[in-house]
Design brief:
The structure is a homodimer. Chain A has about 350 residues and is of the alpha/beta class. Chain A has three domains: about 130 residues, translation initiation factor eif-2b, domain 1 (Four Helix Bundle (Hemerythrin (Met), subunit A), Up-down Bundle); about 170 residues, 3-Layer(aba) Sandwich (Rossmann fold), CATH 3.40.50; about 35 residues, no CATH class. Chain A has twelve helices and 18 strands. Chain A has a seven-stranded mixed sheet, with helices on both faces. Chains A and B meet through helix 7, strand 8, helix 8, helix 9 and strand 14 of A and helix 7, strand 8, helix 8, helix 9 and strand 14 of B.
Chain lengths: ~350, ~350
């Protein structure tokens, strides 16, 4: 990925090997700033405050959190306490659990004095794996966009919700990986970017990273996708995923379900891009079984932006004292999903399709 | 309706009978200010700039616009020019056309010197009719809420989109009229208020007027309704309408279609409240035939609110230079609508039901 034409990842080890550096995503799109994580508590806070977000990036950040912790305290008790604290930083993303448990499984059998180095290597391995996985998702999704272009001969219109781009991963992204792959392959395309209330990850992050890559895009409010699909202005939708169940239900940013309903109603293919690490094989019925994180009311009642004078300003957009509910995710039933694009290829969102991913 | 416990309408004639006074809805929810309209151009600007909005209120404001114009120039040419200019102020709301054509039909046969007084009386008549029509919509919708309460014995959860309250009409509102009627009848209820991007009429207006009336409500982002319905937290949805077709398709604020899809998918009754003047009997297929107003990009890219210090501040919430599309309405096909609540009673959203409204 590029920022001002320089190659970047969304997380990297500092030159002195003592810390991990991240892009502070809460400052985008107005300021590009980076933050160094020196400790497990830094990593935990970066996850909780959403300086890093996106299921895959949360996982890798948590892995580095474990690694940073092991440098200071590497006893069994410290390992347990570290893992427990990191697991609580965000409740929905299964990659967080996946990453922390992977670190725990690697480190538990080792002697305490071996853990710091092993943890650092393992976290680095996970970061590299994430890049490879997302590149593979991009290649598996590319033919869908290619086919749409061959069918119509016109720029392919793709709708996406929230940010499942490279900012949500270490590189490439999940939902945006096929879009970057198609664009780099010379296929003309245009992205409809849902602003994605609250927190506006579409307006703040997806629009920003697409612009950095030079990909044509138009921002829309979350209410608009159905209208566009009714009029044939969307060729396909691709979204990311924070947790998928064994039968193919997908939990993603709130509002994904509404777009999936509209896609289904208008015969628009609706794809979900995810690494297989996002699948929670212990769950079947996503609506009934996946706990949905509720966040602070002020993410709904207040909004932050930049004035014409360049100042960052937070304003209340409701009557004083107005109460709000803030559910962060919803679950899209598998019946509405055309296909799951994974690093192992595309599969149907049902038990038969999912089972292929186990091999 | 009440503001700080004083009775109000959203539009009234000034004591000197020389002007019409409106609530400047662009200042809500932060400031309650009123504006006097002295001329047709004032009325036209109030409609175009959305100081008044909502199909019924637009209609009555336009009627007063004609009346104000007739006081200065009442020739046939002036009447034609006045009507033509007002019709262009907002393209989607059929009530605007209905109101202007009603004024034209009343005034055309009259001598020029009779037109000013007749127009003033007719506009007043239309305002009073609007109040009566909305009160009737409230009474026809009340049993739906009552039935939900009798079924569950718990406070009735009602979801609404945009603002179809008294601020959208002269009094009572359309979608909110049954809610006010039920609340005043002692039925416990709670309203989920969609913030309704862009322009946020839910967060700015619906939340404000419900609070003024003391009705329990919770603000949600537009992405949330599907999740709530999946979990049984919505008993019924009621929305307003800007134009309906002869077969029951309804055009309303962008995003209404998505909520109707979610209601249908979860067996939640989805009602549309509208005066019969909102029906465009010349149209059948709403998606194909109703022109959808596109508004300025900065309604999407910028947002206005109030700082902690009480200052009104407009901020950009996107990367600099980000392009946006701003479709104001969408069309919900009749197949997704449980019933239309009109001043003549509730009818099915199909040709048979609609035909009953013609008698």
């Amino acid at each position: 990925m590029k920022i001002n034409n320089l190659p970047y990842r969304s997380l990297w080890v500092t030159a002195d090997n003592l810390a991990v550096e991240i892009i502070d995503q809460t400052q985008l799109p107005h300021f590009f700033t980076t933050v160094k994580l020196h400790s497990m508590r830094d990593a935990e806070r970066a996850i909780r405050d959403m300086q890093v977000r996106g299921a895959p990036l949360i996982g890798v950040t948590a892995a580095y959190g474990v690694a940073l912790s092991m440098r200071h305290h590497a006893s069994d008790a410290a390992l347990t306490a570290t893992c427990d604290m990191l697991l609580k930083a965000r409740p929905t993303a299964v990659n967080l659990r996946w990453a922390v448990e992977r670190m725990r499984a690697i480190l538990s059998p080792l002697a305490a004095e071996q853990r710091a180095e092993a943890a650092w290597l393992e976290a680095g391995q996970m970061a590299d794996e994430d890049v490879a996985v997302n590149a593979a998702i991009g290649q598996h999704g590319l033919p869908l966009i290619q086919a749409a272009y061959q069918r119509t001969g016109k720029p392919v219109n793709i709708l996406t919700h929230c940010n499942a781009g490279w900012l949500a991963t270490v590189d490439w992204g999940t939902a945006l990986a096929p879009i970057y792959a198609a664009y780099d392959a010379g296929i003309p395309l245009h992205v409809w970017v849902d602003e994605t209330r609250p927190r506006n990850q579409g307006a703040s992050l997806t629009a920003w990273e697409l612009a950095q890559h030079g990909i044509p895009h138009t921002l829309i409010v979350d209410n608009t996708g159905g209208h566009l699909m009714q009029h044939g202005w969307v060729d396909l939708a691709i979204v990311g995923c924070d947790r998928a169940t064994a039968r193919g239900d997908v939990c993603n940013k709130i509002g994904t379900y509404l777009k999936a309903l509209a896609a289904f109603d208008n015969h628009v293919p609706f794809y979900v891009a995810l690494p297989t690490s996002t699948i929670d094989w212990t769950l079947q019925d996503g609506v009934a079984e996946i706990p949905i994180e509720q966040r602070a009311e002020n993410e709904v009642t207040h909004i932050t932006g930049q004035t014409d004078e360049g100042e960052i300003c937070t304003v209340r957009i409701t009557p004083a004292g107005c109460r709000a509910a803030n559910y962060s995710f919803d679950v899209t039933p598998a019946r509405l999903v055309t296909g799951l694009i994974t690093e192992k290829g595309m599969v149907a969102a049902n038990e038969v399709g999912m089972a292929k991913l186990l091999t």
